[in-house]
Amino acid sequence: MSVTAAKGFTAAGIAAGIKENGNPDLALVVNNGPRLAAAGVFTSNRVKAAPVLWSEQVLKGGQVSAVILNSGGANACTGAKGFQDTHATAEKVAEVLEGHSAGEVAVCSTGLIGVLLPMDKLLPGVETAAAQLSEHGGEKAAIAIKTTDTVHKTSVVTKDGWTVGGMAKGAGMLAPGLATMLVVLTTDAALDSDVLDRALRAATKVTFDRVDSDGCMSTNDTVLLLASGASEVTPEYEEFAEAVRTVCDDLGQQLIRDAEGASKDIKVEVVGAATEDDAVEVGRSIARNNLLKCAIHGEDPNWGRVLSAIGTTSAAFEPDRLNVAINGVWVCKNGGVGEDRDKVDMRYREVHIVADLAAGPATATIWTNDLTADYVHENSAYSS
Amino acid sequence: MSVTAAKGFTAAGIAAGIKENGNPDLALVVNNGPRLAAAGVFTSNRVKAAPVLWSEQVLKGGQVSAVILNSGGANACTGAKGFQDTHATAEKVAEVLEGHSAGEVAVCSTGLIGVLLPMDKLLPGVETAAAQLSEHGGEKAAIAIKTTDTVHKTSVVTKDGWTVGGMAKGAGMLAPGLATMLVVLTTDAALDSDVLDRALRAATKVTFDRVDSDGCMSTNDTVLLLASGASEVTPEYEEFAEAVRTVCDDLGQQLIRDAEGASKDIKVEVVGAATEDDAVEVGRSIARNNLLKCAIHGEDPNWGRVLSAIGTTSAAFEPDRLNVAINGVWVCKNGGVGEDRDKVDMRYREVHIVADLAAGPATATIWTNDLTADYVHENSAYSS
């Protein structure tokens, strides 16, 4: 169902020959209206790929009629020629789809950095994709944007007469991201771009922004939300925002479960923080600690590494009041040894760490993965 | 030679039975004067081990007559009992060495977090170590502080009539550290504690502080500098500071070369920065990027991951003016593709990355290691 679950959208996914192995590598999503409202959130990396620079400009207008996405090349660090290629891609989409303007065509790319896209394959691919646009094309589009993903990721929430659907690729957070994360959400709700923007930012802040697989930030991360208005229903903001958050949360969980080389999904829940910012800072610090991530891989409830990570932050806490639970066992109490660590059962894929700062009422949850030899292998061999 | 290269010092290293495998685990270094001047630098982790809390207090007095160091247990996150144990250890040293005061005995510990030390073995060990104190005991002391170190680390610089020597264990930076880093430096120069403090801080800032093997900060990192004055020579500050810096630099390099599971030593040299702070921030960001560290392991000159890491910083730069050289080949020029990446020879252990921000005259060098399956294995299996 994916991006075509909502009324008013068509999509396609094809193999344009960008990837040398012949796998699908080009996706097209078209908003057939009546509205073209849109919002977008992009990587906060200051080294931005050409498609990000382009799409940021497109989104300033608040209208997106189509999104063209390619895997097989990030078009990042490719200079003026790279930007020209992005521009030419948007022009080609506008030309092939009658009545569209390039300035309303968003572009997303993912793959290796520093390599120009094979435009001689990509531009004919746009024609092929346009010819295959379908109300049932959402799955194929989701498949065509995969890079190291082992499965394609889609999610749909249907409410009273309106729907939010979407697709995602990558594994990581909006920024940082293990690999580039691309997400396209669609809805047939009748909403303006400012409402979409508000709902999208609120959702990504507590979902993709808190999925931190390996602490590395991509040059290409993009999350787009397009609204066709085809349902002719204008939901209440809170209800709409919750639907967007639900789809983002579901897609974020799918990203974590498919992270490169991971054998554990780690939920880092920080409680008792003085502020939400403190909770997020502590959660990220724990989630990015390589020593802890190795310990979790070894099914070792090494709470000392959790405390070490907390100690590097500027959050409000007293070291001798910290408590840590791993899979329900409070292995650290008041900054020291707590319950018997042998009680911790770590056989299952999901690991739940609770870090209690004992400093206030705020909480935050960050998701990450363990650090494995497979992660090292996959990322040592990726481009060579 | 180690800590006994400078006149006025004796040392010992013994197996007290703290480590279950019977390896040496207790070191004692004694300053026989005539001066007892000392300076110390400690982890900036806010979760500090008991010996760090103790030694910070000792160093406030500017005098240290002895240092007792144990491997086989960090005595971190061990609560009031852990602090009592550190105190009792210092008292025992003062009692065994006639005429010493516990308030002038520094204590260092390294090993697992969250485990109380076996005081029934450690305290008798202090007597054994004291009985073996020798002007030739420096090597044995250096051996007794090893944890996952494969070799012991010592360094000596001798100038006109005075000497700076030292020993180190661990692999990492003063803070963060892969494993806890403990360093004891000695000199027979006749200097006051304020001069020692100034020279030590200046040296650690550009050596241990820029050795960042895995971005994880220990609860126990300690660097001490003790001066006996036994040479009766008072060197010029600059000459002394340079000698301390040379010993710290040498020990820091030994730490990197012995980092857990590493197959590459990576020198990240940031040039063209607007400020030294910018250069250090960018260097650390590159040095901590897991994707880049995996690529280097795979001998892949993946400059895109260098640019991604630079882009996450707040340093002054323009993305399209960045240049990156790997082992002498400028693979990235002006933010895009530069010289042929196939020209980069990465067969050797040392890898040299130069990141040119083209934004000013400042520079900084950070040392790190690659990320390997062996690192994952060693840190998955360490405590379980």
UniProtKB/TrEMBL annotation, chains A, B:
**Which top class of enzyme applies to this chain?**
transferase
Report the EC code(s) recorded for this entry.
2.3.1.35, 2.3.1.1
Q: What's in the keyword line of the UniProt record?
A: Acyltransferase, Amino-acid biosynthesis, Arginine biosynthesis, Autocatalytic cleavage, Cytoplasm, Multifunctional enzyme, Transferase
What residues does the record give for site: Involved in the stabilization of negative charge on the oxyanion by the formation of the oxyanion hole? T110, G111
Q: Which GO terms describe its molecular function?
A: L-glutamate N-acetyltransferase activity; L-glutamate N-acetyltransferase activity, acting on acetyl-L-ornithine as donor
The record, for Gene3D superfamilies, names:
ArgJ beta chain, C-terminal domain, L-amino peptidase D-ALA esterase/amidase
Q: In which pathway does it act?
A: Amino-acid biosynthesis; L-arginine biosynthesis; N(2)-acetyl-L-ornithine from L-glutamate: step 1/4; Amino-acid biosynthesis; L-arginine biosynthesis; L-ornithine and N-acetyl-L-glutamate from L-glutamate and N(2)-acetyl-L-ornithine (cyclic): step 1/1
GO cellular component terms given for this protein: cytoplasm
State if DNA repair is listed as a keyword: no
Q: Which family does it belong to?
A: Belongs to the ArgJ family.
* Quaternary data: Heterotetramer of two alpha and two beta chains.
Name it.
Arginine biosynthesis bifunctional protein ArgJ
Provenance organism: Streptomyces phyllanthi
As recorded in Swiss-Prot or TrEMBL, the protein's gene is named argJ
